[in-house]
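Side project, low priority. Logging it here so it doesn't get lost.
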Amino acid sequence: MAIDAQKQTRFFRQCEIDFQLELARGASCIASCCSDASLQRLVQETVLCFVKTHGPERFTVFRSLLAARLTARGQPKAAAIVASHPLPASDCRQTAVTQTGG
């Protein structure tokens, strides 16, 4: 069990490195929004951009990392919205596959 936990920790750390641009941009934009409507829109936009760029495979990891960054910024409401955001519809995933040549 300890080996699995170590692998998961390494995987999350690598994802944090791989996605640092998206995490920084998303956390900054989401944390600075003023209204609930803009918060929802920015979360949706951040998630869509991530999935279009990287595909859906590591979406749940990205979502967890982004929520953690928002929590660290003192934005628990935004973190909760991110943490509960579903994977975008299949047409977005198809766009990601087409763009990456998969």
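Brief comment: Confidence is low (pLDDT under 50) at residues 93-102.
Revisit when time allows.
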